Amino acid sequence: MPSDLVPSNPASLTTPGTLKSSDHHEAEDPGRYSENWYRWYVLFMLTGLYTFNFVDRQLLVILQEPIKADMGLTDTQLGLLSGFAFAVIYVVVGIPIARFADKGNRRNIVTVALVVWSGMTAISGFAQNYLQLLLARIGVAVGEAGGSPPSHSIISDIFKKEERATALSVYSTGINFGSLIGLLAGGWIAQYMDWRYAFFAVGIPGIFYAIVLRLTVREPPRGFAEKITASKDGPSVWEVAKVLLSRPTFRHMALASGLHAFIGYGAANFAPSFYVRVHGMEIGPIGTWLAAAGITGAIGTFLGGYLTDKLMLRDNRWYLWVPAISTIITLPIYMIIYNTGNVYLALTLQFVTALTFSMYLAPNLALAHSLVGLRMRAMSSAVLFFVLNIIGMGIGPVAVGWVSDQLQPTFGNESIRYSLMSIVFIFNIWCVFHYWMAGRTVDEDLALAPP
Length: 451
Description:
The protein is mostly helical. The chain has helices at 36-62, 64-71, 75-101, 106-124, 130-144, 148-158, 161-192, 195-216, 237-245, 248-269, 271-279, 283-311, 318-339, 343-357, 361-370, 377-411, 415-439, 442-447. It contains 18 helices and no strands. It starts with 35 loop residues before the first helix and ends with a helix. This is Major facilitator superfamily transporter.
């Protein structure tokens, strides 16, 4: 029997709203979670937290061109700023935070994390050179590392398995709404004011949101949805990683997620640069178009989770097939975007790619949580995000920037077009291969998972 679960006899099971006395230190007023409205309120608050997370990230994306002009940066430096340097800190710090979240109060962790990354976002506006801005973004990464794994763990504790992908998809729409706000606000502020003001404008509200979250959200009991009581101490980082890496399904799914994110971060981070350089657009309208596409992205994110919850009741392979099929659909649309000379056709098709390419995250998170036990959930998110963010957020933007720099002497401003086109084509195909491989073993690996 897995070490993170108490034997499931009647005496050891909890009913909604009750906890063993040893767990009272970690869960406050668990009875509230027996009320459906409160579970959805908590999900709403955590989605708002994730929205702030991506407001801060996408703000830097839309501000890349004015920052580049102001500080005299290369595309590779831009890729490092928004990609590798951020991702390394994010995933390294995320592991110990996730370990603590599997043992301690997750509500408190996400509250402190939000204050840290919002404050560091505001501080980014004071940067006078590349090193100062890099250090400020590292501070943002430290804060954001404490956001998602604890939130994922809370959500999986308060929603049943058959609702979990849908709930995680609602949470994941924070990516899209955060991108919408960051791109829209950042684009217009940068066009009519100094780019530094944009960092102040989006950083400070996050601190006030953290106060509301701290006062209104309670720590839920572990295993609330399954009515299973978790033991006090969770497994070690190595034990969780060992369980996950022993599953072929997780190995292939994690690689597929990383490659998916590689394309997503690489394409998204250089989308404003593409429209400025290739189509001669101004940054304000670009931010508006890309922000609007975030609405269809939110729909796609929700559909990915919702469809998975419905279809996986027939076949567990839909955990992998939903993201695989959506990835296949996206490829030819990306090729049209990067090849057409009609800027409005390209911008309109961004709404379609935002829809289809956003359908991968919730199914992968739900499957990762289904492969492990109660006190492994935050860590399973951290391990998945380690792979996803190192490959995707870490290497994706740097790769696009580096290829663009190499092609620049030959193609000039068009180099960003050919960089994006080649990387999207190659990595889409590679990504689908790993989803297909993961689907071959998913039934066996789920059968090995704790109840």
